[in-house]
Amino acid sequence: MGIAVGVNEKLDQTVLSSSSDSTSSSAADLQNEFLTMLVTQLKNQDPTNPMDNSQLTTQLAQINTLSGVEKLNTTLGSISGQITTSQSLQSSTLIGHGVMIDGSQVLVGSGTTTPFGVELGTASTSTTATISDSSGNVVKTIDLGGLSAGVHTFSWDGTLTDGSTAPDGKYTVAIAASSGSTQLVAQPLAYAYVSGVNTSTDSTTLDLGTSGTATLDEVKQII
Fold first, then answer.
1. Which of 67, 95, 188, 223 can pair with 27 through a Cys bridge, CB separation 3.0 to 4.6 Å?
2. pLDDT tens figures, 185-195
3. Which positions ≥6 away from 124 have C-beta within 8 Å?
4. What pTM does this model have?
């Protein structure tokens, strides 16, 4: 079935628009359709009243723009895939290492304790860590002194205020920081062990066992 084009009839913008909206049409398909219509129109145009050059140039520019966008999407998709692969490889190197993430848990077992930490956006002149048991009772207060902005990691020796050894179990640490008379935002950090890497989701995540999962950007420090 042919397409009839009259003398000096302008290219049908509706045809081009509907073609560009179709999910099955590529930039190459649209270019072929455009060229077919253009040749037909040139064959049938009135020599005394030729096609408007500015309109032709605009239509060609639109087709070229669509082609460029299609190529850009393909390139971005390739880059995205490379980034995901790179993240997976980077994450795999953390297996068997400890990391510090947002959290307030401290574990005590067999005379050892897991590290705790703090992330400060502003340097402090006074910083205090308060450790409580599972019932909310304060069992130890540690003066950390003044700290610079950034991530800091500390160890609790596992002793209580009276000098005795803390029973095995889970404890919670709360951080209070100030600069002079100004209270600062202090994010407590908890220790987690990287036991594996999950790549089945849209983004690569670290398997932290009982601490759940975390992405690479959620890791504040590698121990």
1. 67
2. 999 999 999 99
3. 146, 147, 177, 178, 179, 184, 186
4. 0.62
